[in-house]
Amino acid sequence: MPDTQQRSDSQLRNLIRTEIAGHDVQQLAAEFGTPVYVYDAATIAQRIADLAQFDVVRYAQKACSNLAIIDLVRRNGALVDSVSAGEIRRALAAGYSPQGEPPPIVYTADIFDRASLDLVVQHDVHVNCGSIDMIEQLGERAPGRNITLRINPGFGHGHSQKTNTGGESSKHGIWHERLGLACGRAEYRGLSVTGVHVHIGSGTDMEHLAQVCGAVEKFATEVGRSVTSISAGGGLPIRYTEDDSSIDIAAYYALWDQTRNRLQDAFGHDVRLEIEPGRYISAESGYLVTEVRAVKQIGDRTFYLVDAGFNNLARPVMYGAYHPISMAPVGDPASRPLQEAVVGGPLCESGDIFTQREGGYVCTRTLPAAQVGDMLVIECAGAYGFAMSSNYNSKPLAAEVLLSDGHPHLIRRRQTFDDIIRGEQIPAHAAGGGK
Q: Would you state the pLDDT for residue 171?
């Protein structure tokens, strides 16, 4: 067999995915409909286990917040971070206690809306304050509590400017030069600063992640001996492409452990080391299964149009994010030649393209020749996938399925039209045509 043919056959095999965690893709689509999010529970459990050296693994539930996923995280020993009143309620509904040591739930934000402030006061939820106003508002309502400070260290990093959470252009955290003021306001309000948290962005590499260690050590030293915990934040990368490198978790932990040990020596007491991943835990577990509904030529380009759009997965249109795409074909995949194709969705938007790079530039992807009824599997979609879904174009939210204990479990039914319009109403004066 010629080398070119061997390479083509190998590439075809890599682009065919007939099953997810032992479950046939076409059967999953037939049972649950499309588009559908499918999660492999074993992958989530493994990613939590990867980080077991850290004293606390705290899942950033904004990445994927289905109750079944949060429950799975809890049963695998991780605690949870919440960024809204709704996420606090999700954590409680999934079985987390509001209080404990270390805190099972931490509320991390740059503001209190009125609902979140009421909730953290009511349940005594630990707060990671990202602004001095939060310190003032919590201290006024609930003096005597411990708090953590989220510090903006003056630098940031991320795979997109939209995921960069440090530096002067970021809204996140208390500016590092105002740390002394923040500590003073906490003392005045009767709050004790017991922890320091720094997160500079998603998609960071080892070099940038290591920078955070020095920043946290500096800030913790400035706060003083009241500090009993430090947080490495999140941002751990995953491999979206074969060219992406995996992070050396052991080396990363070693950097943080050295930082923690120096602080323990300086303070004379134990310092808890936390890490706060979201994407790292859930991204690789998730697959968005979508059906090819049309194959069309536009000039010299071939378009595969599927029934999922950016209402289901917004990362490509928001960040130009790359997701691996494979096919679960109808019939024998060996008969499918490879071709370059653009993968797009059904929305009335030119930007509804899954194969684009940042800036909205449409790209092609090498895929097997498609026909209506084939399934495309958009991979590494378990973080910021369903969680960022919308009803744009009055499209229903997709179903979610968890593969666990050898069985598929429906963990969110597909939204109905009645679900979409629930809560909407036509004013009485308009019901009769405006009379």
A: 86
- The Cα–Cα gap between 326 and 292 comes to 12
In the DSSP assignment, the letter for residue 406 is T
Residues 342-389 pLDDT 10s:
999 999 999 999 999 988 999 999 999 999 999 999 999 999 999 999
Residue range 215-248, pLDDT digits in tens: 999 999 999 999 999 999 888 889 888 878 788 8
Contacts with 123 (C-beta within 8 Å, 6 or more apart), sequence order: 88, 92, 98, 99
Query: What is the reported pLDDT for 158?
Result: 47
Residue 115: other Cβ atoms inside 10 A: 13
- CA nearest to 25, candidates 378, 398, 303: 378
Q: At 229, phi and psi to the nearest 5?
A: -150, 150
Q: Supply the DSSP symbol for 259.
A: H
Residues 193, 186: contact at Cβ < 8 Å? yes
Q: Choose among 216, 202, 198, 200: nearest CA to 255.
A: 216
Check if 363 is active-site.
no
Q: Give the residue among 134, 128, 228, 112 at the shortest CA–CA distance from 185.
A: 134
d(CA 165, CA 237): 15
**pLDDT of 295 over the 50 cut:** yes
Could you say which of 129, 183, 213, 348 is catalytic?
348
The amino acid sitting at 245 is: S
**Amino acid making up residue 243:** D
Instruction: Give CA–CA dist 66/40, Å, rounded.
Output: 13
**CA dist., res. 349 & res. 263, Å (int):** 53
Q: CA 414, CA 394: separation in Å to the nearest integer?
A: 13
Other residues' Cβ atoms within 10 Å of the Cβ of residue 178 = 16
Distance CA 257, CA 52 (A): 13
| C-beta neighbour count of 95 within 10 angstroms | 12
